Please model this.
Amino acid sequence: MRLLAFAPVLGLVPTLLASPALHRYHPSEPSSGLPAGPYCPPQDVSPSEQHAIFFDFIDKLYVQKNATDAYLTYVSPDYINHSPYAPQGRAAAISFLSFLIPSLNRTILHETFENDIGLVHLKVYSQPLLALTDLFRLNGSCVVEHWDVNQALPANATNPIALF
Model:
């Protein structure tokens, strides 16, 4: 039922997966044709530097809506993506997110970073409204792993502040 409520955003997924651009780079290839970023392979950084790296990554991805720059700068070519809606690897994520991120009308509600894990909680303005949380794990200076969790606001919600 919740998956059906997420259908307006997920309706983009089949289109994206069928796109030739998504498959232009094969993430299992040692060289995907994409340059290595300045922060990957991981480098030792202080906790405050890692904090700044995460928030710059989030700014490029969600505020500037530039998935290509965010991922080429901060994400490992061997990026592990646990999302059931997106393929593995940095190149696949760039292709997928370059279309998805600019098309979503959303607001960042919370963002935090602690102990190598960063979290972004978003309100996605769709029908129905969605709560979306992206979690990223950093290894030193480099984003290496991602999870996402989402939930639609039910039409019969009795809690006036549900999800947000």
Observations:
- Residues 1-31 have pLDDT under 50 and may be disordered.
- The CA atoms of residues 30 and 47 lie 30 Å apart.
